[in-house]
Structure of STRP2 protein:
Amino acid sequence: QGSVDCPNLEFEYGDADGHGAEIAELYSYTEESELSTNRRCFEEDFHAQVQGRRWLEVDRAQQKAYVMRLLDGLEVVNRDKRLKVARAILYLAQGVFGDCDNEGDVLHWSRHNSFLLYQLGTFTAFLELLNMEIDNSQACSSALRKPAISLADSTELRVLLSVMYLMVENIRVEQEEDPPEWKTCRETFRMELSFPVHTEEPFALLLFTMVTKFCSGHAPHFPMKKVLLLLWKVLLFTLGGFEALQAMKVRKREELGLPPLPEDSIQVMRSMRAASPPTYSIDLMEQQQQQKRGHRSRRPLVKQDSLDIYNERDPFKNDETGVDEEENDDVDSGIEGELDLMERDAIIPAMPAQRPPIERVSFPKGLPWAPKVRQKDIEHFLEASRNKFIGFTLGQDTETLIGLPRPIHESVKTLKQHKYVSISDVQIKNEEELEKCPMSLGEEEVEETPCEILYRAMLYNLPQYMIALLKILLAAAPTSKAKTDSINILADVLPEEMPITVLQSMKLGIDVNRHKEIIVKSISALLLLLLKHFKLNHIYQFEYVSQHLVFANCIPLILKFFNQNIMSYITAKNSISVLDYPHCTVCDLPELTAESLEAGDNNQFCWRNLFSCINLLRILNKLTKWKHSRTMMLVVFKSAPILKRALKVKQAMMQLYVLKLLKIQTKYLGRQWRKSNMKTMSAIYQKVRHRMNDDWAYGN
């Protein structure tokens, strides 16, 4: 498995990958030939208008005038002429690479031209064209008649979506040297995408509709990868990324009068270090030792007294090997222990310093998270204590402590110190009050946030959107076998002429795998964004979306995704860096050979695959947290060994989410499992937040 010497992965989780990488993933390697077509369309037209000068040498006024001319050309009736103009605009958005010397220049001009195109109303013009293309029944019916769909069937759609994606991505990403007019431009664009002006629904809804239309089989030629990438980036741009979410959460807690969060989870995770996983070779040794013990202790087991069942005396206790193994474990964890000490020192100073001293006290040394207690936990604890010591309960009263012994008073005080009230708790309480007194309280004032508008627009067809996204995720998962009834997601990667040489088919194989990985990445990221934003906006919106994800079999789907060799998925080399945009536009391509394709790049891991894995684990956590029936689904689908294998990836954030999923089901896995997985148990203890009176480790 090659996991024993798996090094720590230097992976920085974020909203998205680097700007260049995100733009490169828009294109398949089979689309490479179209780059020169775009350039030709632009240069033929531009040189007819402006003699003897390049785009980079023309002043801004002339650039504007030329773009306006191009936009007029989009109004013509002839489809081919329209496509030529759209290609010329795409070449501008791609950064006029014919005039550039290096990759940095291409990306710079791509940004510059995207802002220019947006200011002159290109996005709206392309939105109209996109609507026309979506409703183009002729293209749909010809695609449905074909036995095999290829790139040629989606040419117009791909050009339109590429221009829109480049504009969204270039304008979304902030850079320090952006002029002030670009900043206002960014805000206007964000407003335009979030709050629909001309249409009834936000732009994201149009893309969701494309996804469902594709999945229903009515439009098999839609280039799904580009649609999903654009949809993800539009949601990221309009709703905000993880840092923006954290800031919104802090602001909302202030508005509701709740105490500030005990820590910034993004920062805590960044300072966490990966634990050494329970490695494969050690697992093997453990199994062998258990078999040895099994052989040795077979005789005593037969004669064992029936009373011993009640004493729970361990039949292996008298065995020397048991002691040996414990000692081995200690030797092994010596290095880990040192690492832990370093880790503790590293974590504590990383906390913000300007905090009142009271909170410092409640922060356990060496553990990354402050413990949390829910109101419900305090009530349960008091109910049990009153039943035991007084013989009756007082319902939800958590103040009266008469008749309870001193230690119970102390316990309640500690629990209350760590009590955490979430925004969701407040929202649920408000809903209950509104239900009790609908007349006197009147209608609730709902703030028109981008999230609220999106939810209202999605609500009507929400189950269909979730089913469609999961269908595509299933088709793109590496563990899925190519079934005849699954949807064909390769329409926008397969060329018209299928490969004839070994080299061509190798290249196409890499392209297809990369294509699937990018689809998984965009779906996992957009589902996580939706869940997180809806949860903050209103808990019941989140519950409704997650319910439909669960109905659509999201839990077994994610577990199926992880039921593979995760290390090889994360270190997969399904990319040919010399063919990546913008490298392939400014550098002479070396001769590709089967050997060079097989070698791949020398990255330690594949960013997008690790990103996808973390997102899927986070979605699974969101769906199962505090939900007993869904936790039982994890147990029933035998997720523990699958998740344990995922711990082999030495990346702190990924391990944390795996450990969280193991923690919620530990008490249902039985004593034997806990006994043979003590390393995992101690990793949970070190990494995952503690709930004060949670019996996760020993409850049966």
